[in-house]
Write a structure and sequence with these properties.
Layout: E1 5-6, E2 11-16, E3 22-28, H1 38-48, E4 65-69, E5 71-72, E6 81-82, E7 87-92, H2 114-121, H3 137-154, E8 159-167, E9 170-171, H4 192-207, E10 214-221, H5 235-244, E11 249-254, H6 265-268, E12 272-275, E13 278-281, E14 289-290, E15 293-294, E16 299-305, E17 315-318, E18 324-327, H7 338-364
Antiparallel strand pairs: 1-2, 2-3, 3-7, 4-7, 5-6, 8-9, 8-10, 10-16, 11-16, 12-13, 14-15, 17-18
Helix pairs in contact: 1-3, 1-7, 3-7, 5-7
Length: 365
């Protein structure tokens, strides 16, 4: 299986399966001399791990991370520091229930990668989806912490935040948007009123054996102008690829995104003035990127996440032998996988920005 790596200079390769003994990531291209402790990574993993509320899968994984290589500490350092060598991180799987998948060994789950994996490879790991499982994203979140540290090392002052702005058809009210609210509910929702409504709607979907989709918004503030490159090295192209690589992602938009098509040229133009001696944009329909290069404004990316395909409602399907049948997926699944997609989106933003900051330094000094 190819294409398990992402990035150019700051490059990650994830490994492992949902029901294997462990999963992890190898990070290459991280600058040396950065303090990196397992507890720094653990705090981010705790935001993504399962079993944190009734609104996510009840699989009990501690997601404890272990740093296997790429750091060194002795009495001359103030903590373990990156050496510039590949950093290998390991996360053990401890709560697999392979028996939950015995009934679907020869059935294709609609909406999952079961059929396409068989079509490509001739066989598949049916236990939780193997490499197609969202379990793989734990490794991305771990790598995202390293990316944030590398980004701070090269381009200090960048802040990356993410939230859920829509669940099913129910959107937040932008007039109530408050970043301080995202840690006050289980949905990373910046609107406390919407969070209450989502709780009711998602609980109903969960009890009915169904699921809901969502939209995740990721915002990077403090990004300097100049990251990215024209044509094939566009910052927005790499961000779109990063977000679309997340399990269950079905669409990406940057800035005004799809709604830009409904604007006039006058409305869409982000006019520029001078404020405190610096360029100041009067709007941000471009989402902080012009011509594939960061403008210095907030970089705003949104991606849609489809409803979880593993549901207990019977669905029509076929077997690997070509017979028509029905399927009911058992096991422990997220009624809205978009919730745990929030820290994953933030991690992917960090990796792309760290990569482009290092690319910029390599070309422009």
């Amino acid at each position: 299986m190819s294409f398990n790596s992402f990035g150019h200079i700051f490059r990650i390769t994830t490994w492992g399966e949902s029901h294997g003994p462990a999963l992890g990531v190898v990070i290459d291209g991280c600058p040396p001399g950065i303090v990196l402790r397992a507890e720094d990574i653990q705090s981010a993993l705790n935001k993504r791990k399962p079993g944190t509320s009734k609104f996510v899968t009840q699989r009990k994984e501690p997601d404890t991370v272990k740093i296997l290589s790429g750091v060194f500490e002795d009495d001359r350092t103030d903590g373990p520091r990156t050496t510039g060598a590949p950093i290998s991180l390991e996360i053990l799987n401890v709560d697999q229930r392979t028996k939950d998948y015995a009934d679907i060994r020869d059935k294709y789950r609609p909406g999952h990668a079961d059929f396409t994996y068989d079509a490509k490879y001739g066989f598949r790991d049916y236990r939780g989806g193997g490499r197609s499982s969202a379990r793989e994203t734990a490794a991305r979140v771990a790598a995202g912490v390293v990316a944030e540290k590398a980004l701070e090392h090269v381009r200090p002052g960048v802040t990356i935040r993410a939230c859920l702005v829509q669940m099913g058809p129910h959107k937040i009210d932008r007039d109530r948007f408050d970043w301080a609210e995202i840690n006050n509910n289980p949905f990373w929702c910046p609107d406390p009123v919407a969070a209450k409504l989502w709780e009711e709607k998602l609980d109903a979907a969960r009890k009915a054996g169904s699921s809901l989709g969502a939209i995740v918004e990721v915002v990077a503030s403090g990004v300097p102008a100049g990251l990215g490159a024209p044509v094939y090295g566009k910052l927005d192209a790499d961000l779109a690829a990063a977000m679309m690589s997340i399990n269950a992602a079905k669409g990406v938009e940057i800035g005004a995104g799809m709604s830009a098509a409904a604007l006039t040229g006058e409305d869409n133009a982000d006019e520029i003035r001078i404020k405190n001696g610096k360029p100041h944009f009067l709007s941000n329909h471009a989402g902080g990127i012009l011509g594939g290069i960061s403008s210095g404004q907030d970089i705003v990316v949104r991606f849609s996440v489809k409803p979880t395909s593993s549901i207990s409602t019977p669905r029509k399907t076929i077997t690997s032998g070509g017979e028509e049948t029905e399927i009911t997926t058992k096991g422990r699944h997220d009624p809205c996988v978009g919730i745990r997609g929030v820290p994953v989106g933030a991690a992917m933003m960090a990796m792309v920005l760290a990569d482009h900051a290092l690319l910029h330094r390599a070309q422009c000094g």
